[in-house]
Amino acid sequence: MPPKALDYEQLNENVKKVQYAVRGELYLRASELQKEGKKIIFTNVGNPHALGQKPLTFPRQVVALCQAPFLLDDPNVGLIFPADAIAKAKHYLSLTSGGLGAYSDSRGLPGVRKEVAEFIERRDGYPSDPELIFLTDGASKGVMQILNTIIRGAGDGVLVPVPQYPLYSAAISLFGGSLVPYYLEETANWGLDVNNLRQSVAQARSKGITVRAMVIINPGNPTGQCLSEANLREILSFCFHENLVLLGDEVYQQNIYQDERPFISSRKVLLDMGPPISKEVQLVSFHTVSKGYWGECGQRGGYFEMTNIPPKSVEEIYKVASISLSPNVPAQIFMGLMVNPLKPGDISYEQYVRESKGILESLRRRARLMTDGFNSCRNVVCNFTEGAMYSFPQIRLPPRAIEAAKRAGKVPDVFYCLKLLEATGISTVPGSGFGQKEGLFHLRTTILPAEEDMPEIMASFKKFNDEFMEQYED
Ligand SMILES: Cc1ncc(COP(=O)(O)O)c(CN[C@@H]2CONC2=O)c1O
After folding, report:
1. What mean pLDDT do residues 429-456 have?
2. What CA–CA distances, in Å, run from 233 to 151, 215, 262, 269, 353?
3. Alpha carbon distance 265, 341 (integer Å)
4. Which atom of ligand 1 is nearest to the CA of 444?
5. Strand partners, 443
6. Residue 296 in contact with residue 59, Cβ under 8 Å?
7. Are strands 133-136 and 302-307 parallel, antiparallel or unpaired?
């Protein structure tokens, strides 16, 4: 028989090139061990509810009522749901064209996009146009759509931070573009040096690559750094002079664990800079309900906002969004609730603030616990998690460990993470899955394990690590 289209050999080469380490070799091995009955701590994915974080009560009450509007007709509904949840449910149902089961506009419900615009205006102090905001099935889908729109072929390059969240390398591979790495400086707290950018662009151009866009992830994944306003100004100036579209991935903007560098949006800095930059630089910013203190990853709610994008291009992006008909409608309601939260005086406000603050303060303590835990280990150094929800320690592997890894046919940090997993059940992602400087090795874990479990997890890690180093050190 002749080869068939879905035979492996016949597949789209771009599909076969794609890598996505967050659910790669370590995750698959951890799943096998779990099936064999081993207790696994899945810290490989930023998936808060999978690690015990409780959903915020109010959003779930509202969406439950929206999913089951017949409850609103029940005379006893007020005995189970607070009046403000009932009111919000009626508000969101009135925005839909037939409830949660009906498609929305392909850009999302206009009423929710308006709430997102109002959120952005309150956050940045500048007007925001709902027509330039598209709701998406998680930020991932928005990122992929914009990269697909930008990349015309292998000659098109996108500047991506290294270490990077592998959605970017995977999407660029899938769409047949070229990833142009710019290295973050670990010794400068994963700071971004514009000279590295210049070198990367010059190198790419020398290979005939047209660099078209630049990605920033702020706060960083896996590195956790928060960009300063000065850094953002440098980046925007760079994009202006090099004629690059800036993709501002800001999904962790609520996850800030220090006071020195609070979150400031790329859009605010862009508009603060004034013309010509504020009028010329094209910016797409991304956000999600998966992160922050919401952690509603499974709902698949996100948005992107476009700044300085010509109307004809916005129409093309709308046209492509239409192919998927509608972003999922329940998630749009979560997004609306996130950007238009309860206000002081609302019945459920106190509970909402108590739950939210509780989660954020605990994440801040866990960021500190994990960083200090790693830094107490032999041959391990770790920058503090300023934001996001990951820790990315550098593991200084002795030469004999690197040789052992090579004999086992494994990349050194994969070798180390596999040994860690087998010994402790802690499932991490090797740094090689995010990119790292030659000869350096890292692992990524989340700061999500329950706070009460953190000391035991870090002690288990330290025991493994120090014994590993003892075994392989000369
Ligand atoms: C920087 C960044 N951008 C976008 C996304 C996608 O989010 P959505 O859920 O909205 O699509 C993630 C998810 N972070 C992955 C998921 O868990 N661990 C990670 O590194 C992310 O870390």
Report:
1. 94
2. 25, 15, 15, 7, 33
3. 19
4. 20
5. 430
6. yes
7. antiparallel
- The response to whether residue 167 sits with its C-beta less than 6 Å from ligand 1 reads yes
Residue 162 is classified by DSSP as E
Q: Whose CA is nearest to atom 17 of ligand 1?
A: 46
Cα gap 49→187, rounded to integer Å: 33
For the whole model, what pTM was predicted? 0.96
CA of 249 to the centre of ligand 1 (A): 10
Distance of CA 44 to the CA centre of its chain: 13
Q: Give dist(CA 363, CA 352) in Å, integer.
A: 17
- For 168, the token pair is 């970017």
Q: Is the CB of 335 inside a 6 Å radius of any atom of ligand 1?
A: no
Q: Which amino acid is at 437?
A: K
Q: E-strand spans in 63-171? A: 133-136, 156-162
- Report how far Cα 365 is from the mean position of its chain's Cα atoms: 21
**Tens digit of each residue's pLDDT (9 = 90 or more) over 244-257:** 999 999 999 999 99
Is pLDDT of 21 > 80?
A: no
pLDDT in tens, 52-77: 999 999 999 999 999 999 999 999 99
ipTM over 0.90: yes
